[in-house]
Amino acid sequence: MIEMTPEYWNELANHFILISALLAGFSIAFIANLIVSDTNNRISTYLQITATIAASSFLISVFSMTTILMMTTKGYPLEIEESKFHTARIIGGVTFMIGIIALSTLIALSGWTKSKTMGILTTIIGILTLVMVLIVS
Q1: Do the beta carbons of residue 23 and residue 51 sit within 8 Å?
Q2: How confident is the model over 106-116, as pLDDT tens digits?
Q3: Is the Cβ–Cβ distance between 123 and 106 less than 8 Å?
Q4: Which of 61, 63, 83, 109 sits most deeply, having the most CB atoms within 10 A of its CB?
Q5: How many Cβ atoms are within 10 Å of 45's Cβ, its own excluded?
Q6: Where residue 66 falls among pLDDT bands split at 50, 70, 90?
Q7: What is the pLDDT of residues 74-95, one digit of tens each?
Q8: Mean pLDDT throughout 46-68?
Q9: Rounded distance between C-alpha atoms, residue 116 and residue 133, angstroms
Q10: CA 61 – CA 53 distance, rounded (Å)
Q11: Are 93 and 57 contacting, i.e. CB atoms less than 8 angstroms apart?
């Protein structure tokens, strides 16, 4: 098994923080748009729930990866507890993937607010997006 160095984890956490923060911001903006819209149907409710799951997951990922970033930065004043490091790594990775799945679902559901044709198209795009992201990660 390949052992990852603290320097590598530090860089990896930096990248995850950036990506997660951007995607959380996008999800929160989507939530805000849904809140101010006048539509109040079942698909809007599903979109709201999905966007909230995505935003929450990405925010948890940001804070988990920030913990890893702090622990792997030179000069960290506390002793690094391996269990805390692994817990942050697992929580950060799992919530990031939950956020990706929720965001892909959000893409897939978004077209259904307009028409059946648009719904089918966005569902196909959402599924392809999720498959491609899973392939490359």
Answers
A1: no
A2: 999 999 999 99
A3: no
A4: 61
A5: 12
A6: very high
A7: 998 888 888 999 999 999 999 9
A8: 97
A9: 26
A10: 12
A11: no
> Can you give the pTM of this predicted structure?
0.91
pLDDT at position 137 over 90: no
- In contact, 107 and 125? CB cutoff 8 Å: yes
- CA-based angle 71:99:9, to the nearest 5? 25
Neighbours of 32 (CB within 10 A): 11
Name the helix (H) or strand (E) containing 59: helix 42-71
Q: Tell me how far the alpha carbon of residue 18 is from its chain's centroid.
A: 11
Q: Shortest CA distance to 30 belongs to which of 55, 60, 61, 58? A: 55
| Encoded tokens for 42 | 């079942």
Which residue type occupies 122?
T
**133 C-beta neighbours (distance < 10 Å), count:** 14
CA 136, CA 30: separation in Å to the nearest integer?
26
- Under 8 Å between Cβ of 99 and 58: yes
Please report which residue ranges of the chain form alpha helices under DSSP H.
Answer: 6-36, 42-71, 82-110, 116-136
Q: Which amino acid is at 109?
A: L
